[in-house]
Amino acid sequence: MIESAEISRLEIEMLRILSESAEPVGSRMLKRELEKRGIFLNERTVRYHLQLLELRGLVTGHERRGRTITDYGLAELSRALVSKKVGFVITRFLSMAYSVTYDYAADSGMVVTNVSIVDKSFYDKILRIVNDLHLANLLLAPYIKVLDEDEEYQNIVVPEGKIGLFTICDLTVDGVLIRSGIPLFFKYGGLVQVVNGKPLRFINMISYEGTTISPLELFIRSNQTSVLNVVKIGSGVLPVGMREIVAEARERTQKIISTLKEKGWGGVLTLGFPNEPVLGVPVSLDRFGLCMVGGLALAAALLESGAKIETFASYCLVPIEDMKRI
Q1: Separation of CA 278 from chain center
Q2: How confident is the model at residue 3 (pLDDT cuts 50, 70, 90)?
Q3: Could you give the CA distance from residue 267 to residue 273 in angstroms, rounded to a whole number?
Q4: What is the pLDDT of residue 83?
Q5: With bands split at pLDDT 50, 70 and 90, how would you rate the model's confidence at 273?
Q6: Which end of the chain is more exposed for a tag (fewer CB within 10 A), N or C?
Q7: What is the CATH number of domain 96-325?
Q8: What is the DSSP string of 168-180?
């Protein structure tokens, strides 16, 4: 058995898929399962990584039936899951935000996007929901990109009978603020109760620093939101991210947020005041809170409407010029 090297995120996901199956898994099935987790590889590359895992004793082959994870692989997976992923979310978010080059004055540059794969039959409903969210100030940005079946973009190949949906992630706003010299800190992803159009308080939250998965993605996938109710009757539960910003930067932050709003951007629920709680949550000394509806609000609304949807949060950076303004 070859001594195992540090396990990569890709290898972790491959081992997780194998550990969840009672039967051997082939490269084709593994490729499809990886795509559901936001990892897009061709079958040949999947086979190559399986061979590497087998050489290290983490998986074992069963001729043409596929591979299964070994006891040694299970032990390594258990060790790696926590050590690899604690802090992964906040580090990745910061990396994506720092990579944003969007210039709101010129309306050009790179933005962070979420990607959703949805049944093509929901196309008209998607457009209606996008418009409703935009009118209700719950859509982060008035831009969208739609891929038809069999189209390819940013390593996304849309399956037959599906469409691909690119929407702007709230990390783009973080990137705009950072590029303007405003230091911010990712604090929580949570659920905010809204009553009669007014956001009241966080009813659930997860700290970005301690989680191994995206908090808003978790809340949405577990069906804990009611975005459509907020749109229709003004009351419900929204997926919201909270940041803290140093007190001295509040005026500049407010100016940027106001300018974005004038250009059709939305989603900002609350811009707090220094040292004052925001939506019931205390802030650190000499900071204020900024709460934004997550860019995944559209995915949440589609899920609530009955759509079969696979969503990958903060998937990639794209030029905003490649997107269509609503």
Answers
A1: 23
A2: very low
A3: 18
A4: 57
A5: very high
A6: N
A7: 3.30.70.1360
A8: E-THHHHHHHHHT
Residues of the chain with CATH 3.30.70.1360: 96-325
How far is Cα 130 from Cα 138, in angstroms, rounded to an integer? 9
Q: What is the DSSP string of 180-229?
A: TT--EEEEEEEEEEEETTEEEEEEEEEETTT-SS-HHHHHHHTT---HHH
Per-residue pLDDT tens over the stretch 101-134: 999 999 999 999 999 999 999 999 999 999 999 9
Q: Is the pLDDT of residue 18 over 60?
A: yes
Residues whose CB is less than 8 angstroms from the CB of residue 156 and which lie 6 or more positions away in sequence, other chains included: 40, 115, 117, 147, 164
| Residue from 67, 76, 79 nearest 25 by CA | 67
Closest among 326, 125, 117, 132 to 229, alpha carbons compared: 132
CB neighbour list of residue 154: distance below 8 Å, 6 or more residues apart: 115, 166, 315, 316, 318
Q: How far is it, in rounded angstroms, from Cα 49 to Cα 202?
A: 43
pLDDT value at 194 more than 80? yes
In terms of DSSP bridges, do strands 287-293 and 268-271 run parallel, antiparallel, or are they unpaired? antiparallel
Give Cα 74 distance to the centre of its chain: 27
Residues of the chain with CATH 1.10.10.10: 9-85
Q: Which CATH class is domain 9-85?
A: mainly alpha
Instruction: Give CA–CA dist 56/69, Å, rounded.
Output: 11
Contact of 139 with 266, CB cutoff 8 Å: yes
Percent of the chain, pLDDT > 70? 95
CB neighbours of 321 closer than 8 A, spacing ≥ 6?
108
Pick the more confident residue, 37 or 50. Answer: 50
* Confidence (pLDDT) at 89: 74
pLDDT average, residue stretch 194-213: 89
- Other Cβ atoms closer than 10 A to 290: 27
Between CA 298 and CA 305, with CA 302 as vertex, the angle to 5 degrees is 140
